[in-house]
Every structure is written in C-alpha cells, then in structure tokens.
Specification:
The chain is mainly β. The protein is 7% helix and 43% strand. The N terminus is likely disordered.
C-alpha cells in the first residue's frame, strides 16, 4: 500500500516489561518513571508500526516464532551477542511481521523514527533503514561510538542520539554535527521542545555517586537557567609585537590558578 507523506504521529503510551537478558538504561516517563519500557509504536495516516524485543529469538535456529521476513543486515551468527526486534506493520487490510537482528543491549523504546515510507531503527550501534511498503533493507550503517546507544529522536535536519556516555547530533547523511560527553553515565533523559534534560551519575573512586542534572540545547550547548553557558576561557586579544605571547601565557596561567588552585 502507498504510504502518504507528512509528519508521522508518535505514540509511546503502551509500556511492556523488558527482557531480563539485557537491561540497558531507559528514559524516564512522567506517567510511571519506575517502569521499564521496551516498546515503541509509530503511526501515520494508513500504517501503524509496533516494535518490541523478541527475547526468545535465536539466530540460525529452526524453533523461532514465524515472521514474514527475517532481516540480518550485518550477518550476525549464533555466537554473536545480539538483540532481535519484532516489528509489526499494520494496514487496514493486511499485517506484516519482521524480525530485525542487531547488536546486543539494544532497547526497543525510542529506538525508531518513521519518515513517510521509511523506518529508521537503532539497535545499539546498528542503524538500519527499512522500506515500510515491502520490508526491504534500504541501508545499514554502524555508528562508530563508544558505549551503548539507547535512543534516537528526529530533528528538522537529522537526528539526536542518546547513549550511556554521550549525546550527539547527526544529519541525514549520518555526519556528526556535534557531540556532548557526559561527566558520568547518563541514567535518564527527557526530550523537550528545544532541549534535552539529562541526569548523569558521576562516580569517583572511594566516594558516593554524584547526580548531575544537565540541560542540553539542540545546538550542543549546555544551558544554565535556560540560556547558553558562557565559554569557560575568556577571549584573549591577538598577540602583538613581542610581548603578546608572554601576556597570553600569563593570562592563561592566572585563569588556571583562579579556577583550579
């Protein structure tokens, strides 16, 4: 069936308990922040897509539940650490089910973006684009990042990806526009209209964990009281004839001592 164009409507109001096999960090939800969510539901005018994890699926096994199509774009085998998403696509007159095999520790909440007739799915560092009409893999990429990647969100000119150690923005060609490195592990997050709210757990050896709350704008800048944070190092005048370099070193030394000594 033809898929109409237009901005899809996202409905994430159907929580499902996640598998005990892999317990990655999941975002907070105002309705029940304590409940682990392992489901995402996306829809447009004629098609509804529902994504859940299938913890019973074993690669190369004959005892798996039946699917209309099994997608394994990276060629994982049974010896690999994997996570399989069960994708159900519903139209008014038909239903199609897909199994998408990806990297382990993927979580099926906030894992996908529905863009007209294409579905973009994040499974940890695996990013797969599927044609909704026939379930074919259009592209598959591996994001070269450190740590587990938990969620992906659409932005006007690309996507925002949230990991356990960083948040970064990429364009539609998957080129990085900016990245933010957390001071610890990102334990929860909440998307807002023009920013993302992060809660980071910073652990120092021999000390209790410290929780940091960070507001991050979609331009990559940390926000303080809703405004972009000023640069840490003040601007320095250009060097001029001989004494400029010494003056620059003195100002940097004074700044370091004033802020860190």
């Amino acid at each position: 069936p033809a898929i109409p164009s237009g901005r899809p409507i996202c409905d994430r109001s159907h929580p499902v308990t996640s598998s005990d096999r892999c317990q990655p960090v999941t975002p907070e939800r105002p309705s029940s922040p304590q409940e682990a969510i392992a489901m995402q539901k996306l829809s447009n005018a004629f098609c509804t897509v529902e994504i859940t994890e299938d913890p019973t699926y074993t690669v190369d096994s004959v005892d798996n539940r039946p699917y209309d199509r099994v997608l394994n774009p990276r060629g994982y085998r049974r010896s690999h650490f994997t996570c399989t998403f069960s994708i159900r696509m519903d139209w008014p007159n038909c239903t199609r089910t897909l199994a998408l095999i990806g990297e382990g520790c993927a979580v099926a909440s906030d894992c996908a973006v529905l863009e007209d007739d294409q579905l973009l799915i994040l499974q940890n560092r695996d990013l797969t684009r599927i044609a909704v009409a026939d379930g074919q893999v259009l592209s598959h990429d591996r994001l070269d990042r450190f740590g587990v990647l938990n969620a992906i969100y659409p932005l006007p000119d690309g996507y925002l990806v949230v990991g356990e150690l960083e948040v970064f923005r990429i364009d539609r060609s998957l080129r990085e526009k900016w990245s933010y490195a957390a001071q610890g592990v990102i334990i929860s997050w909440q998307m807002q209209e023009d920013r993302i709210l992060l809660r980071e757990e910073e652990t120092t050896y021999g000390m209790n964990a410290k929780i940091n709350e960070v507001e991050l704008g979609f331009d990559g800048r940390v926000l303080v009281d809703g405004q972009p944070e000023e640069p840490a190092i003040p601007p320095v005048e250009p060097c001029r004839s001989g004494v400029g370099k010494r003056n620059l070193r003195q100002r940097l030394y004074q700044w370091l001592c004033g802020n860190r000594c």
